[in-house]
Amino acid sequence: MFKKLIFLSISTFMFSQQTEEWDLQKTVDYAISKHPTVQQSILKVDQRKQEITASKGMLLPSVVANTSENYSFGSTINPGTNQREALNVGTTQFSATANWELFNWRNFMNISLSKMNKESSDYRLKAVQNDIALNVIQLFFQYQNDKAWFGVLKTQLDGVEEQIKRTEKEVEIGNRPKSDIYDIKANMGTLQEQWVSAKNQKEISKNNLLNALAITSDNIDFAQNTSDTSSVLAFSDENFVKEMLEKNPAYLAAAKEIQVSAEKIRVERSGYLPTLNGQYSWSTFYSKVLGGNQPTTAFSDQFNQNKNQQVYFNLSIPVFNKLQVKSNVEIAKLNKINADLEKEKTVSNLVAALKSIKIQYQNSEEKYRLLQQNFENQKLSFDKSEEKYKEGLMDAYTFFIVRNNWLQANYNLIKSRYDVMLQEELWKIYNK
Q1: Beta strands in 292-359 (DSSP E)
Q2: Can you tell me the distance from the alpha carbon of 415 to that of 371, in angstroms, rounded to the nearest whole number?
Q3: Which of 120, 224, 260, 330 has the smallest C-beta neighbourhood within 10 Å, fewest atoms?
Q4: What is the pTM of this model?
Protein backbone atom coordinates (compact mmCIF):
# COMPACT_ATOMS: atom_id res chain seq x y z
CA MET A 1 0.00 0.00 0.00
CA PHE A 2 2.85 2.36 0.90
CA LYS A 3 4.56 1.67 -2.43
CA LYS A 4 1.33 2.46 -4.25
CA LEU A 5 1.07 5.81 -2.44
CA ILE A 6 4.66 6.68 -3.37
CA PHE A 7 3.95 5.76 -7.01
CA LEU A 8 0.80 7.90 -7.07
CA SER A 9 2.64 10.85 -5.50
CA ILE A 10 5.47 10.62 -8.02
CA SER A 11 3.01 10.30 -10.90
CA THR A 12 1.05 13.33 -9.68
CA PHE A 13 4.26 15.37 -9.37
CA MET A 14 5.46 14.37 -12.83
CA PHE A 15 2.07 15.17 -14.34
CA SER A 16 2.04 18.60 -12.69
CA GLN A 17 5.50 19.29 -14.12
CA GLN A 18 4.58 18.41 -17.69
CA THR A 19 5.88 20.95 -20.18
CA GLU A 20 3.44 22.90 -22.31
CA GLU A 21 4.35 24.09 -25.77
CA TRP A 22 3.40 27.64 -26.65
CA ASP A 23 3.75 29.21 -30.07
CA LEU A 24 3.96 32.96 -30.54
CA GLN A 25 0.21 33.48 -30.84
CA LYS A 26 -0.57 31.66 -27.61
CA THR A 27 2.22 33.53 -25.86
CA VAL A 28 0.96 36.93 -26.97
CA ASP A 29 -2.68 36.06 -26.20
CA TYR A 30 -1.68 35.13 -22.67
CA ALA A 31 0.35 38.32 -22.21
CA ILE A 32 -2.38 40.74 -23.34
CA SER A 33 -5.04 39.09 -21.21
CA LYS A 34 -3.32 37.85 -18.05
CA HIS A 35 -0.46 40.27 -17.44
CA PRO A 36 -0.93 42.23 -14.16
CA THR A 37 -0.41 45.55 -15.92
CA VAL A 38 -3.24 44.71 -18.33
CA GLN A 39 -5.46 43.70 -15.42
CA GLN A 40 -4.74 47.04 -13.74
CA SER A 41 -5.71 48.86 -16.94
CA ILE A 42 -8.95 46.87 -17.09
CA LEU A 43 -9.69 47.90 -13.51
CA LYS A 44 -9.06 51.52 -14.53
CA VAL A 45 -11.64 51.20 -17.31
CA ASP A 46 -14.15 49.78 -14.82
CA GLN A 47 -13.37 52.66 -12.47
CA ARG A 48 -14.07 55.15 -15.26
CA LYS A 49 -17.43 53.50 -15.87
CA GLN A 50 -18.35 54.06 -12.22
CA GLU A 51 -17.22 57.68 -12.49
CA ILE A 52 -19.71 58.20 -15.34
CA THR A 53 -22.49 56.78 -13.16
CA ALA A 54 -21.40 58.96 -10.24
CA SER A 55 -21.29 62.14 -12.36
CA LYS A 56 -24.78 61.45 -13.72
CA GLY A 57 -25.97 60.84 -10.17
CA MET A 58 -25.06 64.43 -9.26
CA LEU A 59 -28.07 65.57 -11.31
CA LEU A 60 -30.39 63.70 -8.96
CA PRO A 61 -31.65 64.89 -5.56
CA SER A 62 -30.35 63.45 -2.31
CA VAL A 63 -32.99 62.32 0.18
CA VAL A 64 -32.39 61.69 3.88
CA ALA A 65 -34.93 60.29 6.37
CA ASN A 66 -34.41 60.72 10.11
CA THR A 67 -36.06 59.67 13.32
CA SER A 68 -35.04 60.57 16.85
CA GLU A 69 -36.19 59.97 20.43
CA ASN A 70 -35.77 62.79 23.00
CA TYR A 71 -36.44 62.81 26.74
CA SER A 72 -36.86 65.97 28.84
CA PHE A 73 -36.88 65.98 32.67
CA GLY A 74 -37.92 68.91 34.86
CA SER A 75 -39.38 72.19 33.71
CA THR A 76 -40.68 71.80 30.20
CA ILE A 77 -43.64 72.57 27.97
CA ASN A 78 -46.64 70.32 28.50
CA PRO A 79 -47.59 69.10 25.02
CA GLY A 80 -51.25 68.89 26.09
CA THR A 81 -51.71 72.39 27.61
CA ASN A 82 -48.76 74.14 25.97
CA GLN A 83 -47.87 75.48 29.44
CA ARG A 84 -44.53 75.16 31.22
CA GLU A 85 -44.74 72.63 34.00
CA ALA A 86 -42.48 70.32 35.96
CA LEU A 87 -42.88 67.22 33.83
CA ASN A 88 -40.94 64.39 32.28
CA VAL A 89 -41.69 64.28 28.55
CA GLY A 90 -40.66 61.88 25.77
CA THR A 91 -40.74 63.10 22.17
CA THR A 92 -40.39 61.06 19.00
CA GLN A 93 -39.52 63.06 15.88
CA PHE A 94 -39.75 62.05 12.21
CA SER A 95 -38.32 64.01 9.28
CA ALA A 96 -37.28 63.70 5.65
CA THR A 97 -35.16 66.15 3.67
CA ALA A 98 -34.48 66.33 -0.06
CA ASN A 99 -31.66 68.48 -1.42
CA TRP A 100 -31.33 69.17 -5.13
CA GLU A 101 -28.81 71.19 -7.05
CA LEU A 102 -31.21 72.67 -9.57
CA PHE A 103 -28.44 74.30 -11.55
CA ASN A 104 -24.70 73.68 -11.29
CA TRP A 105 -22.90 73.81 -14.62
CA ARG A 106 -19.98 71.79 -13.20
CA ASN A 107 -22.23 68.74 -12.83
CA PHE A 108 -23.06 68.75 -16.54
CA MET A 109 -19.43 69.32 -17.49
CA ASN A 110 -18.27 66.45 -15.27
CA ILE A 111 -20.54 64.03 -17.14
CA SER A 112 -18.84 64.95 -20.41
CA LEU A 113 -15.42 64.80 -18.73
CA SER A 114 -16.02 61.36 -17.23
CA LYS A 115 -17.08 59.99 -20.62
CA MET A 116 -13.88 61.34 -22.18
CA ASN A 117 -11.84 59.79 -19.38
CA LYS A 118 -13.52 56.46 -20.08
CA GLU A 119 -12.61 56.67 -23.78
CA SER A 120 -9.05 57.62 -22.86
CA SER A 121 -8.81 54.62 -20.53
CA ASP A 122 -10.06 52.35 -23.32
CA TYR A 123 -7.27 53.58 -25.57
CA ARG A 124 -4.74 53.30 -22.74
CA LEU A 125 -5.75 49.70 -22.16
CA LYS A 126 -5.20 48.88 -25.82
CA ALA A 127 -1.89 50.78 -25.80
CA VAL A 128 -0.71 48.83 -22.74
CA GLN A 129 -1.65 45.57 -24.44
CA ASN A 130 0.28 46.63 -27.54
CA ASP A 131 3.35 47.61 -25.52
CA ILE A 132 3.36 44.30 -23.70
CA ALA A 133 2.79 42.39 -26.95
CA LEU A 134 5.68 44.23 -28.66
CA ASN A 135 8.02 43.44 -25.78
CA VAL A 136 6.95 39.80 -25.60
CA ILE A 137 7.33 39.33 -29.36
CA GLN A 138 10.89 40.64 -29.32
CA LEU A 139 11.84 38.50 -26.32
CA PHE A 140 10.13 35.49 -27.89
CA PHE A 141 12.25 35.70 -31.04
CA GLN A 142 15.36 36.48 -29.03
CA TYR A 143 14.81 33.21 -27.22
CA GLN A 144 14.24 31.41 -30.53
CA ASN A 145 17.55 32.76 -31.86
CA ASP A 146 19.45 31.77 -28.72
CA LYS A 147 17.84 28.35 -28.71
CA ALA A 148 18.70 27.81 -32.38
CA TRP A 149 22.33 28.82 -31.80
CA PHE A 150 22.56 26.48 -28.82
CA GLY A 151 21.18 23.69 -31.01
CA VAL A 152 23.77 24.37 -33.71
CA LEU A 153 26.64 24.23 -31.21
CA LYS A 154 25.27 21.03 -29.68
CA THR A 155 25.07 19.47 -33.13
CA GLN A 156 28.63 20.58 -33.83
CA LEU A 157 29.88 19.08 -30.56
CA ASP A 158 28.05 15.82 -31.20
CA GLY A 159 29.60 15.81 -34.67
CA VAL A 160 33.09 16.40 -33.23
CA GLU A 161 32.78 13.46 -30.86
CA GLU A 162 31.48 11.24 -33.66
CA GLN A 163 34.26 12.49 -35.96
CA ILE A 164 36.92 11.73 -33.37
CA LYS A 165 35.65 8.16 -32.90
CA ARG A 166 35.47 7.59 -36.66
CA THR A 167 38.93 9.07 -37.23
CA GLU A 168 40.46 6.99 -34.43
CA LYS A 169 39.20 3.82 -36.10
CA GLU A 170 40.58 4.92 -39.45
CA VAL A 171 43.93 5.76 -37.81
CA GLU A 172 44.05 2.26 -36.34
CA ILE A 173 43.68 0.69 -39.78
CA GLY A 174 46.10 3.17 -41.32
CA ASN A 175 43.65 5.11 -43.50
CA ARG A 176 44.20 8.40 -41.66
CA PRO A 177 47.22 10.08 -40.07
CA LYS A 178 47.10 10.50 -36.29
CA SER A 179 47.46 14.26 -36.72
CA ASP A 180 43.82 14.36 -37.92
CA ILE A 181 42.69 13.48 -34.41
CA TYR A 182 44.82 16.25 -32.88
CA ASP A 183 43.47 18.79 -35.38
CA ILE A 184 39.86 17.98 -34.50
CA LYS A 185 40.42 17.91 -30.73
CA ALA A 186 42.21 21.27 -30.93
CA ASN A 187 38.89 22.90 -31.86
CA MET A 188 36.73 20.92 -29.45
CA GLY A 189 37.63 23.10 -26.43
CA THR A 190 36.57 26.27 -28.24
CA LEU A 191 33.24 24.70 -29.21
CA GLN A 192 32.64 23.53 -25.65
CA GLU A 193 33.24 27.04 -24.34
CA GLN A 194 30.85 28.48 -26.90
CA TRP A 195 28.30 25.80 -26.02
CA VAL A 196 28.38 26.70 -22.30
CA SER A 197 27.98 30.41 -23.12
CA ALA A 198 25.13 29.65 -25.52
CA LYS A 199 23.39 27.49 -22.92
CA ASN A 200 23.63 30.30 -20.37
CA GLN A 201 22.32 32.88 -22.85
CA LYS A 202 19.42 30.61 -23.82
CA GLU A 203 18.41 30.23 -20.17
CA ILE A 204 18.68 33.99 -19.60
CA SER A 205 16.57 34.83 -22.63
CA LYS A 206 13.91 32.33 -21.58
CA ASN A 207 13.87 33.77 -18.08
CA ASN A 208 13.45 37.26 -19.56
CA LEU A 209 10.51 36.02 -21.61
CA LEU A 210 8.87 34.37 -18.61
CA ASN A 211 9.39 37.55 -16.60
CA ALA A 212 7.76 39.62 -19.36
CA LEU A 213 4.77 37.27 -19.13
CA ALA A 214 4.77 37.49 -15.29
CA ILE A 215 5.05 33.70 -15.10
CA THR A 216 7.10 32.24 -12.25
CA SER A 217 7.04 28.56 -13.23
CA ASP A 218 9.33 27.18 -15.93
CA ASN A 219 7.21 24.48 -17.48
CA ILE A 220 6.64 26.07 -20.88
CA ASP A 221 8.50 25.34 -24.08
CA PHE A 222 8.30 28.29 -26.46
CA ALA A 223 8.59 27.22 -30.08
CA GLN A 224 7.88 28.75 -33.47
CA ASN A 225 7.82 27.06 -36.84
CA THR A 226 10.08 28.94 -39.27
CA SER A 227 8.18 27.48 -42.20
CA ASP A 228 5.06 29.50 -41.37
CA THR A 229 3.95 31.33 -44.47
CA SER A 230 3.69 35.09 -44.49
CA SER A 231 2.85 37.79 -46.97
CA VAL A 232 5.28 40.45 -48.10
CA LEU A 233 4.57 43.72 -46.31
CA ALA A 234 3.80 46.64 -48.56
CA PHE A 235 4.79 50.12 -47.46
CA SER A 236 3.61 53.38 -48.92
CA ASP A 237 6.43 55.89 -48.64
CA GLU A 238 4.01 58.78 -48.30
CA ASN A 239 0.99 57.56 -46.38
CA PHE A 240 1.79 54.43 -44.40
CA VAL A 241 2.98 56.29 -41.28
CA LYS A 242 -0.03 58.62 -41.24
CA GLU A 243 -2.44 55.72 -41.74
CA MET A 244 -0.84 53.77 -38.90
CA LEU A 245 -0.87 56.76 -36.56
CA GLU A 246 -4.55 57.47 -37.06
CA LYS A 247 -5.55 54.08 -35.65
CA ASN A 248 -2.77 53.54 -33.11
CA PRO A 249 -4.21 53.41 -29.55
CA ALA A 250 -1.25 55.28 -28.02
CA TYR A 251 -1.81 58.13 -30.49
CA LEU A 252 -5.58 58.05 -29.95
CA ALA A 253 -5.06 58.09 -26.17
CA ALA A 254 -2.75 61.10 -26.44
CA ALA A 255 -5.26 62.91 -28.67
CA LYS A 256 -8.07 62.09 -26.25
CA GLU A 257 -6.01 63.43 -23.34
CA ILE A 258 -5.84 66.77 -25.13
CA GLN A 259 -9.65 66.80 -25.32
CA VAL A 260 -9.81 65.82 -21.64
CA SER A 261 -7.47 68.63 -20.63
CA ALA A 262 -9.50 71.13 -22.67
CA GLU A 263 -12.68 69.91 -20.98
CA LYS A 264 -11.06 70.30 -17.56
CA ILE A 265 -10.45 73.97 -18.34
CA ARG A 266 -14.18 74.40 -18.96
CA VAL A 267 -14.97 72.47 -15.78
CA GLU A 268 -12.77 74.77 -13.71
CA ARG A 269 -14.24 77.87 -15.36
CA SER A 270 -17.69 76.75 -14.25
CA GLY A 271 -16.59 77.85 -10.78
CA TYR A 272 -17.26 81.43 -11.89
CA LEU A 273 -20.95 80.65 -12.52
CA PRO A 274 -23.77 80.89 -9.95
CA THR A 275 -25.46 77.78 -8.56
CA LEU A 276 -29.10 77.27 -7.64
CA ASN A 277 -30.07 74.81 -4.89
CA GLY A 278 -33.46 73.68 -3.69
CA GLN A 279 -34.50 71.90 -0.53
CA TYR A 280 -37.69 70.30 0.61
CA SER A 281 -38.23 69.09 4.18
CA TRP A 282 -41.06 67.33 5.95
CA SER A 283 -41.33 66.66 9.68
CA THR A 284 -43.67 65.66 12.46
CA PHE A 285 -43.41 64.50 16.08
CA TYR A 286 -45.21 62.65 18.85
CA SER A 287 -44.93 63.59 22.55
CA LYS A 288 -46.10 61.93 25.73
CA VAL A 289 -45.80 62.67 29.45
CA LEU A 290 -43.72 60.08 31.25
CA GLY A 291 -45.36 58.74 34.39
CA GLY A 292 -48.37 60.32 36.06
CA ASN A 293 -51.98 60.12 34.95
CA GLN A 294 -52.09 62.99 32.44
CA PRO A 295 -53.86 62.02 29.20
CA THR A 296 -51.84 61.91 25.99
CA THR A 297 -53.21 62.61 22.52
CA ALA A 298 -53.18 59.50 20.34
CA PHE A 299 -50.09 58.86 18.18
CA SER A 300 -52.00 59.06 14.88
CA ASP A 301 -53.62 62.34 15.84
CA GLN A 302 -50.34 63.93 16.89
CA PHE A 303 -48.60 62.56 13.80
CA ASN A 304 -51.11 64.33 11.53
CA GLN A 305 -51.46 67.51 13.61
CA ASN A 306 -47.73 68.14 13.92
CA LYS A 307 -46.85 67.79 10.26
CA ASN A 308 -44.66 70.54 8.83
CA GLN A 309 -43.32 71.13 5.31
CA GLN A 310 -40.72 73.59 4.08
CA VAL A 311 -39.45 74.53 0.62
CA TYR A 312 -36.14 76.36 0.37
CA PHE A 313 -34.24 77.88 -2.57
CA ASN A 314 -30.75 79.28 -2.51
CA LEU A 315 -28.95 81.16 -5.27
CA SER A 316 -25.19 81.28 -4.71
CA ILE A 317 -23.20 83.81 -6.75
CA PRO A 318 -19.40 83.56 -6.45
CA VAL A 319 -17.89 86.98 -5.78
CA PHE A 320 -14.44 86.31 -4.39
CA ASN A 321 -13.04 82.85 -3.58
CA LYS A 322 -9.42 83.59 -2.63
CA LEU A 323 -8.29 83.19 -6.27
CA GLN A 324 -8.95 79.45 -6.10
CA VAL A 325 -11.00 79.24 -9.29
CA LYS A 326 -8.55 81.41 -11.20
CA SER A 327 -5.62 79.27 -10.03
CA ASN A 328 -7.43 76.05 -10.94
CA VAL A 329 -8.17 77.39 -14.43
CA GLU A 330 -4.53 78.35 -14.96
CA ILE A 331 -3.36 74.93 -13.75
CA ALA A 332 -5.80 73.28 -16.16
CA LYS A 333 -4.36 75.38 -19.00
CA LEU A 334 -0.84 74.26 -18.12
CA ASN A 335 -2.04 70.65 -18.12
CA LYS A 336 -3.45 71.24 -21.59
CA ILE A 337 -0.05 72.45 -22.81
CA ASN A 338 1.57 69.41 -21.23
CA ALA A 339 -0.94 67.12 -22.99
CA ASP A 340 -0.01 68.75 -26.32
CA LEU A 341 3.67 68.08 -25.64
CA GLU A 342 2.93 64.48 -24.65
CA LYS A 343 1.14 63.98 -27.93
CA GLU A 344 4.16 65.32 -29.83
CA LYS A 345 6.40 62.89 -27.96
CA THR A 346 4.02 60.01 -28.69
CA VAL A 347 3.91 60.87 -32.39
CA SER A 348 7.69 61.15 -32.57
CA ASN A 349 8.19 57.76 -30.88
CA LEU A 350 5.58 56.06 -33.04
CA VAL A 351 6.95 57.47 -36.28
CA ALA A 352 10.46 56.37 -35.33
CA ALA A 353 9.21 52.88 -34.43
CA LEU A 354 7.20 52.50 -37.64
CA LYS A 355 10.04 53.66 -39.85
CA SER A 356 12.44 51.38 -37.99
CA ILE A 357 10.21 48.38 -38.64
CA LYS A 358 10.04 49.30 -42.32
CA ILE A 359 13.83 49.59 -42.64
CA GLN A 360 14.57 46.45 -40.62
CA TYR A 361 11.94 44.41 -42.43
CA GLN A 362 13.22 45.37 -45.86
CA ASN A 363 16.82 44.66 -44.83
CA SER A 364 16.03 41.35 -43.12
CA GLU A 365 13.84 40.21 -46.02
CA GLU A 366 16.62 40.97 -48.52
CA LYS A 367 19.19 39.30 -46.28
CA TYR A 368 16.99 36.22 -45.97
CA ARG A 369 16.82 35.81 -49.74
CA LEU A 370 20.61 36.06 -50.03
CA LEU A 371 21.16 33.60 -47.19
CA GLN A 372 18.83 31.11 -48.83
CA GLN A 373 21.18 30.99 -51.82
CA ASN A 374 24.22 30.82 -49.55
CA PHE A 375 22.67 27.94 -47.63
CA GLU A 376 22.13 25.99 -50.82
CA ASN A 377 25.75 26.57 -51.82
CA GLN A 378 27.00 25.53 -48.39
CA LYS A 379 24.84 22.40 -48.56
CA LEU A 380 26.30 21.46 -51.95
CA SER A 381 29.81 22.11 -50.63
CA PHE A 382 29.14 19.91 -47.63
CA ASP A 383 27.74 17.06 -49.77
CA LYS A 384 30.77 17.15 -52.09
CA SER A 385 33.19 17.36 -49.16
CA GLU A 386 31.49 14.42 -47.46
CA GLU A 387 32.02 12.33 -50.60
CA LYS A 388 35.71 13.36 -50.77
CA TYR A 389 36.19 12.60 -47.09
CA LYS A 390 34.71 9.12 -47.45
CA GLU A 391 36.95 8.49 -50.44
CA GLY A 392 40.02 9.67 -48.50
CA LEU A 393 40.51 12.75 -50.67
CA MET A 394 39.97 15.21 -47.79
CA ASP A 395 41.49 15.23 -44.31
CA ALA A 396 39.29 15.12 -41.21
CA TYR A 397 40.04 18.68 -40.07
CA THR A 398 39.10 20.24 -43.41
CA PHE A 399 35.89 18.22 -43.49
CA PHE A 400 35.20 19.33 -39.91
CA ILE A 401 35.51 22.99 -40.99
CA VAL A 402 33.25 22.48 -44.02
CA ARG A 403 30.64 20.75 -41.85
CA ASN A 404 30.64 23.54 -39.30
CA ASN A 405 30.35 26.16 -42.03
CA TRP A 406 27.27 24.40 -43.31
CA LEU A 407 25.77 24.28 -39.81
CA GLN A 408 26.57 27.97 -39.34
CA ALA A 409 24.88 28.76 -42.67
CA ASN A 410 21.86 26.79 -41.49
CA TYR A 411 21.71 28.84 -38.28
CA ASN A 412 22.16 32.11 -40.18
CA LEU A 413 19.24 31.19 -42.40
CA ILE A 414 17.04 30.33 -39.43
CA LYS A 415 18.02 33.52 -37.60
CA SER A 416 17.36 35.60 -40.71
CA ARG A 417 13.94 33.97 -41.05
CA TYR A 418 13.20 34.82 -37.43
CA ASP A 419 14.27 38.42 -38.08
CA VAL A 420 11.77 38.66 -40.94
CA MET A 421 9.04 37.08 -38.83
CA LEU A 422 9.85 39.43 -35.94
CA GLN A 423 9.31 42.53 -38.04
CA GLU A 424 6.13 41.04 -39.52
CA GLU A 425 4.71 40.35 -36.07
CA LEU A 426 5.67 43.80 -34.78
CA TRP A 427 3.96 45.31 -37.81
CA LYS A 428 0.80 43.31 -37.12
CA ILE A 429 0.59 44.86 -33.64
CA TYR A 430 0.86 48.39 -35.03
CA ASN A 431 -1.54 47.54 -37.84
CA LYS A 432 -4.40 46.33 -35.64
Answers
A1: 308-316
A2: 10
A3: 330
A4: 0.81
